[in-house]
Structures are given as C-alpha cells and as structure tokens.
Amino acid sequence: MWVQFPPGAPRGTMKINVGVIGGYRCSRKDYNTAYHLGKLIAREDWVLVCGGGGGVMEAACKGAKEEGGLTVGILPSLEGDEANPYLDVKITTGLGYARNILVVRASQVLVAVDGKHGTLSEIAFALNEGKTVYGINTWDIKGVIKVKSCEEAINRIKRFIKRFL
Amino acid sequence: MWVQFPPGAPRGTMKINVGVIGGYRCSRKDYNTAYHLGKLIAREDWVLVCGGGGGVMEAACKGAKEEGGLTVGILPSLEGDEANPYLDVKITTGLGYARNILVVRASQVLVAVDGKHGTLSEIAFALNEGKTVYGINTWDIKGVIKVKSCEEAINRIKRFIKRFL
Amino acid sequence: MWVQFPPGAPRGTMKINVGVIGGYRCSRKDYNTAYHLGKLIAREDWVLVCGGGGGVMEAACKGAKEEGGLTVGILPSLEGDEANPYLDVKITTGLGYARNILVVRASQVLVAVDGKHGTLSEIAFALNEGKTVYGINTWDIKGVIKVKSCEEAINRIKRFIKRFL
Amino acid sequence: MWVQFPPGAPRGTMKINVGVIGGYRCSRKDYNTAYHLGKLIAREDWVLVCGGGGGVMEAACKGAKEEGGLTVGILPSLEGDEANPYLDVKITTGLGYARNILVVRASQVLVAVDGKHGTLSEIAFALNEGKTVYGINTWDIKGVIKVKSCEEAINRIKRFIKRFL
Fold first, then answer.
1. Chain-chain contact of B120 with A124 (C-beta, under 8 angstroms)
2. Do A116 and B128 touch (CB under 8 A)?
3. Fewer beta carbons under 10 A from the terminal one: N or C of chain B?
4. Is the pTM higher than 0.90?
5. CA angle D101, D107, D110 (to 5 degrees)
C-alpha cells in the first residue's frame, strides 16, 4: 500500500502526491482551470507533483502556492532553467521528456488538463501502470475518467483515497 | 545526424534501427501482420528493435530471424525471463514499462501494430520526441501516419531514410 | 545556472538541494553524524534530498524535520514502503537502485556519510557529472573532499554556493 | 535465471552479454588489452555490451568485430554521434551518463579495464546489484575480482557461466 500512516509518524508522511499533467503552453481558459485545480489540491493538503514547467504546470503550482501548498517539479534538464517560479522542490533529471515517466510514477493519482503528445504519453503510461487519471478538456482516451470541473476531480480523488484506507 | 556512414566503416554501423511496437498479446491477424513486417525489415537489413516480449514483438522478431535479420529486445525485467525466443540481443533493464521510453529512443523510426495503453505510451512519446510513427490497425492518434500494409510501411521508411542521406 | 533567484519569486524557488548519501544501515556513530548533518542543512533552509530509506538517509531526514526542514526521498520501489517516516516528499520511481542517479542529479552538491557500494555508485556518478561531493567517514576516492565534521561540510557548501551567486 | 536455453530456440537466445567498461580515452596499453579482450569475447560467441564510445569501448568492439562477434553500444546521446565505428547495435538513450546503469543491467557479467569516475560508477553500481566484475588495471575497489590477463577473465567467466547451467 502506497499511503503509509505509521503511528506517530510526522505529518509529512501522511500526504499523497497528486500529479497534474498538461501542456507547457496552454490557453487562458486551461490556465485558469489548472490554477483553480492547484488551489483545491493545496487545500486538501496533498502534494502537487508535475513536470515543473510552464502552462498547465505553472498554473497549478501558482494556485497551490497561493494556498500554502507543497509543489514538486520533476524537470527535463540538468540545470532546471525551465522551472516555473512556484516550485518548492525542483528535481532536475537530465532525462529530457523521459522524465514524464517519473511524474507518473511519483503520483498516486493524476489529473490531466489539456495537453499535447507529451501529456498523452503521461496519460497512456499512467493507465498502463494501472493508475487512475481524471481528465478535464484533455485527450479522449479509453481509460481516462472525464470530469467536468476541478471540484469533481477533487471529490473523486477523495473517494479514491478512502477506498484505500 | 543519426545515420552514420563513416568512410570505410564496418557494415554494422550503416544499419538503422526500426522499432516495432504493439501488444504483448494480440490477435492472430495482428500476429501475422507483425510477422510479415519483421520479415520485410530484415530483408532491408535494418535492425529490428522492440520491447522483447510476446505478441506483436514476438511475431516481428520471428519473421526477422527467419530472414536472417538482427533483433534487439529492450526488456522490462532484470532477468529477461519474459524475452521471446527470437532475440539476438537482450537488453534487460529492470525499469518495468519505463523501458518503453528506451524502445522509442533507440529507434530512428517506428511502426505500431495494434496495441493497448503501453503501445499508446510509446506512440505518444515518439511523437513528442519528433519521431515518425507508422501505424497499422493501431491507435488513431493525430500524428500517426496510417499505412494499409507492411509493404507501404517499408516503402515509406525507405523514403524517410533517403531524405536524411 | 541552477540556482534561480527571479525577482519577486516565491521563497521556495530560492532553495538549493543538498543530497545526503550513505548506507541504508549504519553504525550508531554514523547515524548521529547524519542526524546532526540533517539539522544543520535544515537550519540553512536548504532542501534535503536523499534516497528516502533507512540508516544515514533516515537519520538526516529526522534531524532536518526536527528543525522544520524540507525533506525529499527518491525511492527505489513503486509503492514507497521502504520510505523512512521523515519525508515530506516521496518520489517513488520503480527503478530500483537506478534511482541513485536521480538522487545525484537532483542535488546541487552532495555529502556522503559512510556507505557501501550503493553510496560509492552515487559518489562516482556525481564526480563524473562534475558535482562536488563532501565526505565524512566514507569511501576514500580521488575527487571526494574529505571533511572532519558536519559544520565543516556546511561551511564549505556555503562557500560553494556563494561562488555561484 | 538469466541464461535462457529454451529447447529448439534459435541460436541467438543462447548468448550471454559480457559488459566491457572503461574510459572513453585510454593509454595505448589499455587499448591493446581491451582489443584483445574483445577478440576473446567474440570467440566465445558472447555478445559484447558497452557504452559505445571511444577508448576501451572502441578497442573492445574493434577486436570483437575482427572475430565476427556481435557488439552493442548503449550510448549517452539521442543521436549517437559519439558511437565508435564497430557497433552492430546502437542503443541511443538521450540519458547522458545515466546510461551507465543500463550498460550494467544489460550485462550478466562485466570486465573493467582502466577507467575514471564513469567506470567507477559502473563498477559500484554492478557490485551493488550483485553482479560479478573482473578488473584489469582498474579501480582497486573491494568486491572487484582482479585478473592479470584477458585470458584469465575469459576463463573465470566460463566458470561463472557453468555454475548457472
């Protein structure tokens, strides 16, 4: 089981990671969606994991930081220059887009907003690993659970977590 | 440029790698398609790169070996027990399905036959890296070049290679 | 440059990652050293990155958490059951010990305490990537900068950082 | 078990991979050693796996090709321009020196000749994964089995293989 609640453990270990995936460039509308999603994730005290870049990733991190959340970016480069300015933790990898795999593996559940082939690779990889992916205005792929709002995504993640406790 | 033809270099270095991706289980029809594809790839003296497992991968390797081709399987496990019996080179990775990335990166061009989410992750990752993917009876994703037969795939790859020489 | 200080950026982005590497089992003496090291790293407001396991990693995280620091564990398994209970961020990878590479790449500078072949692989990989490694009671390898105390390590890291600002 | 001998399987599957690791630049003496080692590996019909570059890697591949062996290079770059001209199979990875891990994982047994920190990272990683490493004029690390000649390395590998059949 991936959610560990050892008795007396510090608070930090009780958090789950929610992956937010989407394009490093996106429309204003998708940016706003991701920003709102980030806020809601932070309010639940979940760790926000993403690819660390711009667009959907930046928006989600911005939202999360404004609510005092914890944000993690798993970055393609060795140096991390592509990092958005709302990351608490920068994991530079030097793997290029192979880091997409790590974003998926580090997340217990994922939400996709918009996105192009990179996001599709994450969606497909997540589904292949048996992970749950919620989708807002993203690729219409068999296996993705379409949701209509950020609130619906959050509610579904809550229920998902409860099933494992 | 990825196709190196240094003057006087041994033959081996002149080969390009064609990735064949598809499900580790597949229908008889798709098996036959992949088998035929493997034969054609070997006749062109290209190296066949795949995930090394069953189904489409096995069929393609079987076809290639029957024509004296060279086959490479990039395998998920540390031990390689999942390898099909038609591999000249087994690259065990211990990375699980993260090895999908390596199949894509090791191929200069790819052909997808059938396949589920694992194959989709390879298609998406390849397109994201700017690689050309030909598809036979596989995911209908923007960017994949649909072909109707193995012969068409081979002809298109030949033209693709010529553009880079 | 890996240390980004964009004007007006949130505090989080100003932190550097210090990798602490060492055995997942260790002597009481090395445990105490790593524990003290973790405290000092947290007091500097640096992010502590490690392999997330027991021994030296656990000790450093415990120390860091007691000082309110931020701790990141890059874990070998998919599920993260091997995580020590002092991690704010758990990056599960499913890569086995190949995750050692990621610990190195995610750190701007590293401190090794004790350790066996796994730690040696991290030291060697870090030096190969041109990174600075400080060593306390660890492998005596050309390139590792031996330090006699945690305080000396911290002072040297401070000077190292200043050179890049 | 990593050496598969399925009844009636094609010849290719019966081969084991021997990793040759060492510096991409080396002395004439070490070049000659690696060249001779490559010849002997090819005569045993083992697959030679290496990092695909110059120096020790090039020498071993050159020797192997002169004896009709099969050579595999697992390369740091996406394009493979650093490949030596004696490779039958080029596995381009785009992972930089993180590909060292893959050289180790793809080899059932390794021989180190000379080498700097990159080679040390491979030696240490191999020992950490429980693999056997024979060393000729290389890092004097606990766990490496020192051998005095290529012939001794080959004889020891033969005995090593027999223990697993």
1. yes
2. yes
3. C
4. yes
5. 95
